[in-house]
Write a structure and sequence with these properties.
Largest sheet: 4 strands, antiparallel
Structural class: alpha+beta
Number of domains: 2
CATH class of the largest domain: Mainly Alpha
Strand order of the largest sheet: 8-7-10-9
Radius of gyration: 30 Å
Distance between the termini: 22 Å
CATH topology of the largest domain: Triger factor/SurA peptide-binding fold
CATH superfamily of the largest domain: Porin chaperone SurA, peptide-binding domain
Strand content: 15-25%
Length: about 350
């Protein structure tokens, strides 16, 4: 947890958990609409400072746990609690996080990690800016049980030590080079293959039955629609006509079918689309008793997606994966000889 996230969690505790004793005796608040099936919230747990876990003898309290729960799910402050179906998972995750951070902190001390006093002072000044008023700041101090300036500086130093350990033991070790990303791309071509797709906007006239008069009227409507649609100069122009004239389900969204695989479209439409350029409107096509015309928005041939198109997302995905792997390995290593007690 970085100092920024720590301050967010502490602010939530100061503003919401400060009134938890009252909340714990009131009905759970509803999130969203009331009635059967409405999501309910579990009231915010009263914070008493009781020990919830020990890590190599160091005590972690319910104050640490609830603070972390707020950091993981800050919306709880707005709804006076956590979603009931999510609260156990949030609580477990928060417990694991505060244990992990304590292990990191203890490891930092073993490694002789220290924070210069000037950096602590700088962080303290920035931390103070998170509070809108002196009363809000005082509320935080009360909730945290901080009675001296040194206690606050110790908390900030601890947070900065954890942050430094995260940078040196996880971020730095998990960093990927552009060459590693490119190598993954080259070794996994199937992952970056895309099938041929089309994106079209359609206007369809669908007669309700096959009676001769009905079909005749539908053809007349279709001819009129086509005379307007073929002159559409833009996505919006065609889309407005689709909303006004089309009988198919896509008319509510500018007639847009979004990107679809080739096999999802009728062969007659695909055959025409292959002869068109984006922005062109097709001739009218009769499919059974229905009449359809469409505007080609985009055609993407099948093939391997170029590296340039996937580079940014691939870098982020691989980086997240590697970071989680390094973090898990570090957590397992720190836990190996640690004595952890959950109360």
């Amino acid at each position: 947890m970085t100092l920024k996230l720590l301050s967010t969690g502490l602010l939530a505790v100061a503003t919401a958990v400060g009134s938890a004793q009252v909340a714990s005796h009131t009905p759970a608040a509803s999130m969203g609409h009331s009635g059967e099936g409405a999501s309910q919230t579990a009231p915010i747990t009263e914070v008493t400072g009781k020990v919830v876990a020990k890590v190599n003898g160091a005590a972690l309290t319910d104050r640490d746990l609830v603070r972390e729960m707020f950091s993981m799910f800050p919306y709880a402050a707005q709804h006076n609690g956590f979603p009931k179906d999510m609260e156990p998972q949030i609580r477990r995750g928060a417990m694991q996080m505060i244990i992990f951070e304590e292990l990191l902190y203890q490891d930092a001390k073993r490694r002789g990690v220290t924070i210069p006093p000037a950096k602590i002072t700088e962080a303290e000044v920035e931390f103070r800016k998170n509070f809108a008023s002196q009363s809000e700041y005082d509320a935080y101090l009360r909730v945290e049980g901080i009675t001296s300036k040194q206690q606050l500086r110790d908390k900030i130093a601890r947070s900065l030590m954890i942050e430094q350990m995260l940078k040196t033991q996880i971020v730095a070790k998990a960093r990927l080079t552009p060459e590693q990303v490119r190598e993954y791309y080259n070794k996994n071509p199937k992952q970056f293959y895309r099938e041929e797709t089309f994106r079209i906007q359609s206007i369809s006239i669908l007669p309700p039955n096959a009676a001769p008069d009905t079909l005749k009227e539908a053809k007349k409507r279709a001819d009129d629609a086509y005379n307007q649609a073929k002159n559409a100069k833009s996505y919006r122009e065609f889309g407005l006509l689709a909303e006004k004239l089309s009988d198919d389900d896509f008319h509510v969204n500018y007639g847009d079918h979004k990107e679809r695989p080739r096999n999802d479209l009728p062969p007659e439409l695909v055959k025409l689309a292959l002869t068109m350029k984006p922005g062109q409107v097709s001739p009218m096509v009769q499919l059974g008793n229905a009449y359809t015309m469409f505007r080609l928005v985009a055609h993407t041939p099948a093939g391997t997606i170029p590296f340039a198109e996937v580079k940014a997302k691939l870098q982020a995905d691989l980086q997240n994966q590697k970071t989680e792997e390094v973090r898990a390995a570090l957590g397992n290593s720190l836990r190996k000889d640690a004595k952890i007690e959950i109360m």
